Amino acid sequence: MTLPQPPSPIPLSILIRTLNEADRIGETIKAAQALGGEIVLIDAGSKDATIAIAQELGARVINNPWPGFGPQRHFGEDQCSHDFIFSLDADEIVTEPMAAEIRTVFAKPNPPRLMIIRKAMIFPHWKHPPPLGFCHEQILIYDRRIARTGPNPNWDKLEISEKLKPHLIREPLWHFSLRDWNHAVAKWNYVAGLAADTQKERPRAILLMRLVIEFPWSFFKFYVLRRYFLGGADGLTLALVTAFGRFLRIAKMLERKDHKQSH
Fold first, then answer.
1. Residue 44 CB-half CA count within 13 A
2. Contact between residue 77 and residue 146 where contact means Cβ atoms under 8 Å apart
3. How far apart are CA 237 and CA 4, in angstroms?
4. pTM of the model
5. Residue 92 phi/psi, 5° resolution?
6. Which strands make up the sheet holding 114-121, listed edge to edge?
7. For the segment 166-212, what is each residue's pLDDT rounded down to a tens digit?
8. Of 58, 116, 238, 244, which residue is the least packed, with the fewest Cβ within 10 Å?
9. CA–CA distance, 115 with 121 (Å, rounded to integer)
10. Bridge-based pairing state of the strands 158-160 and 147-149
């Protein structure tokens, strides 16, 4: 059997953060290989086969205990061989059309230093996004000489030093964020607790007001504005679980504030 030829290399580092992703890291790396860039995996101490799978597929693996979302990606940026970085999560798949589009951009002289990626949410147990589904847009390909990830442990926001118009990659990235509903509940519970522990403290009156409006507004935002209704029962369930996660974040922030004041 003739093996497919690897694509010619491009000056791009695909940066992936992992922790116990053995069930899906293989597909993520195999899809990313179509880009032709180096693959750098920053692992936070996986106890499963994540590292072995990644190394077998040719990824460079570096261990770094989890310091939070922003610091972990910032650490990974320093480990990359190229200045152009594509921040890819272990639950995201680069489709063949997307890889071809990115390679076309890098084939031109002086590729854009900031590129917006469109993320298409895949509902649990689905194999592809629904037609006309919502895509979240975010700068995920960037030149680290002008863009670096900030220190906030709760999210990985880029700090950009030059005002440049980002280039839009039109083909979407497929985001398999949630394995099942157990994973969804556990994830939003973790994120809510992390937000309560790390975000700036807010006045109690503001938290009480948001406690009332957070769930209905978040449900409307995800189910209607982000078109989760296109996912049928799965879309409805995800909108409800996500809205509850947003509500739980406010509830935990209020809990932390009241507990702190009572001691």
1. 15
2. no
3. 41
4. 0.89
5. -120, 140
6. 60-63, 38-43, 13-18, 84-89, 135-143, 114-121, 167-175, 92-93
7. 999 999 999 999 999 999 999 999 989 988 888 888 899 999 999 99
8. 58
9. 19
10. antiparallel
